[in-house]
Amino acid sequence: MVFNYKSTTEQHIKTYHLMGELIDRNQAVSMLEEIDKAVSEGDSKVLLNLQDLKYINSSGLNVFINILTKARKAGGDVAICCVNKKINELLVITKLNSVFNVSDSTEEAVAVLNK
Fold first, then answer.
1. pLDDT digits (tens, 9 = 90+) for 56-109
2. Among 23, 29, 31, 38, which is most exposed with the fewest C-beta within 10 angstroms?
3. What whole-number distance in Å separates Cα of residue 71 and Cα of residue 90?
């Protein structure tokens, strides 16, 4: 399955709805460029909605870490929401669940980013 995403902006939060499988950094180049542009324009709060992301590997996790680094350097943050069981286990095993703000719902994630 291929990787794809949709992006929206609400209340100065850029939301990326990820779909498919993220297994190679090259799959996410356009998304990373869009995030770079948004962060440089002052939208440094990023929400990654993983509801339709079926699989991610270490390369995909590296993409998430790059996004987090860019956002935090700009004074923002990243929240992850709607994580399936398999991806949540990966976040727990890698201890990235303690680095990212992981929420069950979009509403919870928005609330975390607006603190």
1. 999 999 999 999 999 999 999 999 999 999 999 999 999 999 999 999 999 999
2. 29
3. 22
Q: In the CATH hierarchy, which fold is given to the domain comprising 4-110?
A: Transcription Regulator spoIIAA (3.30.750)
For range 32-56, the mean pLDDT: 95
Q: Which residues touch 12 (CB under 8 Å, ≥6 apart)? A: 42, 43, 45
Structural domain boundaries in the chain: 4-110
Three-state secondary-structure class, residue 15: strand
Sheet strands (E) in 57-92: 77-81
Residues 45 and 76: beta-carbon distance below 8 Å: yes
